[in-house]
Amino acid sequence: MVSEITLEKSRQMYEKAKTLIPGGVSSPVRAIKPHPFYTASANGSKIRDLDGNEYIDYCLAYGPAVLGHNHPVIKEAIRQQLDKGWLYGTPTELEVTLAEKVASYYPSIDMLRFVSTGTEATMSALRLARGFTRRNKFIKIEGGFHGAHDAVLVKAGSGATTLGEPDSLGIPADFTKHTLQAPYNDIETMTSLVEKNRDDLAAVIIEPVLGNIGPVLPLPGYLEELRKLTEENDVLLIFDEVITGFRLAMGGAQEYFGVVPDMTTLGKIVGGGLPIGVFGGKREIMEMIAPSGAVYQAGTFSGSPCSVAAGIAMVDYLNEENIHAKLNSAGDYMRAALSEIVEDEGLDYHVCGIASMFKIFFGDEPHNYQEVLKCDKEGYLAFFHRMLASGVFLPPSQFETNFISAVHSDEDIEKTLEAYLENL
Ligand SMILES: Cc1ncc(COP(=O)(O)O)c(C=O)c1O
Ligand SMILES: N[C@H](C=O)CCC(=O)O
């Protein structure tokens, strides 16, 4: 464990970066105060900065690196694809192969389309839901994050909540007047909202586990009741599984909880760590997408061969090596050990999580956005810096989820627990 670290090269890089890139970062969650560390390389469970400091990584690129960094199987798949070229602008067999594999793990998906990010996936899924139902409104969950397109940047989690700006400037009120909000885990409020708006309500979109202010878990029965409610009112249910897809299980949260949505969005893991997004669902809905139908959606980089090749390698490896059993038991171990530390230290904190997602909330157990906001986010930030100095990289916000990869060793986890004990 390192007790003093030098971040001088990162500091200098930040000074330069912020003159060229707003905030010195390419995505706001990376803007650690007073400055982020700039990464030089990453391998396995470790990430290394420009000053040569090495950290055990639980941010894992915000989820995609489920096999750790630089995994040889994924790297080989990308390398082989590079030899054949990396962008064609034509359909490929690769897309058909990955589509078939995804559909086999997600029985709710009859057909799907590849895009380049999770943002595009949810944007397209919502457009399609509106086109299919010929209705305008949708309901999202307060604190849910579905990427950075206009309609969903309302009470959005992730960096938007970290920065205290869950509603973005630059989005005309007209663009979000059809975006309704419901608190998570509150089926009564959801029911009245659905019933009141059903004539013009296309969909409910939800992260089954709130991963961008969490993880905050669904209360028993919540997802099942939401399914029943949407079905009875003829409203589409969209599971945004950009985080939970291939993370909780091969079949994501829908397999884990046994609740079947009408549409699903995926991203992150399904591209093996390269840019990707997927939206899919029932055949009659998906066939409304151009060119089969009148809902337009397109992209130069959609189905990008390296992303798809990496995704195939990822999905096969996760399945063949039964990786979720290992991941989930590492998650169970981590949460149990952290709970013991929190209890022994007499802290009023709560350890939460599921499968290989975990987090110490600096406050009581939250069940929704309003409760999450009560956490001591400044206290968390100070703790984050102490952990960094001890060689552990957690996501730099109380609202982002920690992830474990399949290559975190027992030694990594023990070192991490020592650091928690030392720094809490
Ligand atoms: C649940 C969820 N949906 C959508 C997105 C958007 O994905 P991307 O960052 O790939 O655009 C994210 C993450 O950013 C996410 O966590
Ligand atoms: N919480 C976000 C996605 O899950 C983090 C990614 C980003 O916004 O850069």
UniProtKB/TrEMBL annotation:
Pathway noted in the entry? Porphyrin-containing compound metabolism; protoporphyrin-IX biosynthesis; 5-aminolevulinate from L-glutamyl-tRNA(Glu): step 2/2
Judged by the first EC level, this protein's enzyme class is: isomerase
Keyword Isomerase included in the entry's annotation: yes
For this entry, list what GO says about its biological process: protoporphyrinogen IX biosynthetic process
Q: Which cofactor does it need?
A: pyridoxal 5'-phosphate
GO cellular component entries: cytoplasm
**UniProt KW keywords:** Aminotransferase, Cytoplasm, Isomerase, Porphyrin biosynthesis, Pyridoxal phosphate, Transferase
Name its cellular compartments: Cytoplasm
UniProt-listed InterPro entries: 4pyrrol_synth_GluAld_NH2Trfase, Aminotrans_3, Aminotrans_3_PPA_site, PyrdxlP-dep_Trfase, PyrdxlP-dep_Trfase_major, PyrdxlP-dep_Trfase_small
Please give the Gene Ontology molecular function terms for this protein.
glutamate-1-semialdehyde 2,1-aminomutase activity; pyridoxal phosphate binding; transaminase activity
* CDD domains listed in its UniProt record: OAT_like
Question: Which SUPFAM superfamilies does this chain map to?
Answer: PLP-dependent transferases (SSF53383)
The EC number of this protein is 5.4.3.8
Q: Which reaction does it catalyse?
A: (S)-4-amino-5-oxopentanoate = 5-aminolevulinate
- Family per record: Belongs to the class-III pyridoxal-phosphate-dependent aminotransferase family. HemL subfamily.
Q: By its UniProt entry, which PANTHER family does this protein fall under?
A: GLUTAMATE-1-SEMIALDEHYDE 2,1-AMINOMUTASE, GLUTAMATE-1-SEMIALDEHYDE 2,1-AMINOMUTASE 1, CHLOROPLASTIC-RELATED
Q: What is this protein called?
A: Glutamate-1-semialdehyde 2,1-aminomutase
Q: Which organism is it from?
A: Methanosarcina mazei (Methanosarcina frisia)
Taxonomy of origin reads: Archaea, Methanobacteriati, Methanobacteriota, Stenosarchaea group, Methanomicrobia
